[in-house]
Design goal:
7 strands; alpha/beta; 6 helices; 7-stranded mixed β-sheet; about 240 residues
Length: about 240
């Protein structure tokens, strides 16, 4: 028995923190910023990093009361990727930019209903990196809100059709956007929220021909609708509504 315990105890010492990390993801506020940057930054985000971390009342109050809030964004995706089941990467793309600007503007306008507009410093150019440590290095202190897309794809749902030919069957639009609230000193992650496209979980899926008809009209229209929903959901989460 002692021999078993000799090997089990060190194993549990390793596994318990690991399981906790997998359950909660990389968005834990007490996770070391360097560890977070290695695992979850600059679009190397794994599934364990794409989790929601609700804002505490103190974080919400900080947004409403803080004198300086920097609002930054990253370079938008300029092509929607067409992804087939079983693929992780695809070169098949449509030149349709993600609706990041209208999403960002609507999110910002909603926040201004609760927060003094003079408190925001809106960055005009895309930020070079989303690493937490970089915020401390660049800003030193204050709050940072950042917004970045995680997914911008048309994905063929294998449950919808037995057709296996690439380009056949029905495709759903998946648009995932991540927004974070960060305290530069520390740095500390105060809130993280992902908005996930609703269309992929409904029956509003179409063939590629339907998506691309009339100069991609359906794709553009649905992208705009998703952007509005995302902006409203993200603002409501941050403000606790």
């Amino acid at each position: 028995m002692k021999t078993v315990l000799k090997y089990v105890q060190p194993l549990m010492t390793f596994l318990v923190p690991l399981v906790g990390l997998l359950i909660h993801g990389c968005a834990l506020p007490h996770l070391d910023p360097d560890v977070y940057d290695r695992r979850c930054s600059d679009m190397s985000m794994g599934l364990s990093c794409l989790v929601d971390f609700e804002a505490s009342p103190a974080a919400r109050n900080a947004v409403k009361e803080h004198s300086i809030i920097r609002f930054i964004h990253y370079r938008p995706r300029l092509h929607v990727t067409i992804l087939e089941p079983g693929e992780d990467i695809s070169d098949n793309k449509i030149a349709i930019p993600e609706p990041l600007n209208p999403l960002k503007e609507r999110f910002f306008e909603t926040l201004q209903e609760e927060v003094e507009p003079s408190n925001f410093h809106m960055a005009q150019d895309p930020h070079p990196t989303d690493r937490l440590g970089y915020f401390k290095q660049l800003f030193g202190n204050g709050l940072v809100l950042d917004i970045r897309s995680a997914q911008w794809i048309l994905f063929r749902d294998s449950d919808w059709t037995a057709v296996t030919k690439i380009g056949s069957g029905h495709y759903g639009l998946i648009y995932t956007v991540r927004v974070r609230l960060i305290r530069a000193e520390g740095p500390t992650l105060l809130w993280q929220k992902l908005c996930r496209s609703k269309h992929f979980r409904t029956e509003q899926k179409y063939t590629l021909e339907e998506w691309q008809a009339n100069d991609n009209l359906l794709l553009k229209r649905n992208a705009e609708e998703e952007a509005k929903k995302c902006a409203d959901d993200l603002a409501a989460s941050l403000l606790g509504k």
